[in-house]
Amino acid sequence: MYLACGSTDLRKSIDGLAALVQESFQLDPFSPCMFVFCNRQRDKLKILYWQHNGFWLFYRRLERGRFEWPESTTDKTVVVSRRELNWLLDGLSLTQQKAHPKVNAQAVI
């Protein structure tokens, strides 16, 4: 999943966001990735996702509060895991100090 750092004009529709992914980020909007965009007030998100023969466009609006969104830096995007995206959707930061670390279990022989 790719987060677009900074703010994005969420008046853009599927075609506008797909063009942004391709032209500004030099990424393929038809890849099996999710591209997540946030508005300036940090209370709305759009997620663009290609599946088989068409785009999905998910929209989320908070009634209260703001998303902890990464600011625009030299990188235009930040790659995150599904877990980290869930943190953002829940109003948490990407750098959770209290989260349990990921454990890779190994089979005992």
Explain briefly what this protein structure is:
The chain has 109 residues and is of the alpha+beta class.
- In oligomeric terms, what are we looking at? single chain
Q: Which strand-content bin applies to the residues? A: 15-25%
What Rg, in angstroms, do the CA atoms define?
Answer: 15 Å
Got a strand count? 5
The number of distinct structural domains comes to 1
- Give the distance, in angstroms, between the N- and C-terminal Cα atoms: 35 Å
Query: What composes the largest sheet?
Result: 5 strands, mixed
**Would you list the SSEs in sequence order as H and E?**
EHEEEEH
Principal-axis shape: globular
Low-confidence stretches: none
Determine the fraction of residues in helical runs and give it as a percent range.
10-25%
Going by helix content, strand content and strand pairing, the class is alpha+beta
Mean pLDDT across all residues, rounded? Answer: 89
- For the biggest β-sheet, the strand order reads 4-3-2-1-5
How many helices in DSSP terms? Answer: 2
Please explain how this structure is put together.
This protein has about 110 residues and is α+β, with helices and mostly antiparallel strands. The protein has one domain (about 1-90). It is built from two helices and five strands, in the order E-H-E-E-E-E-H. The chain has helices at about 15-25, 80-90; strands at about 1-5, 35-40, 45-50, 55-60, 75-80. The protein has a five-stranded mixed sheet with strand order 4-3-2-1-5, covered by helices on one side. The longest helix has 10 residues, at about 15-25. It is globular, with a radius of gyration of 15 Å. The model has no long low-confidence stretch (mean pLDDT about 90).
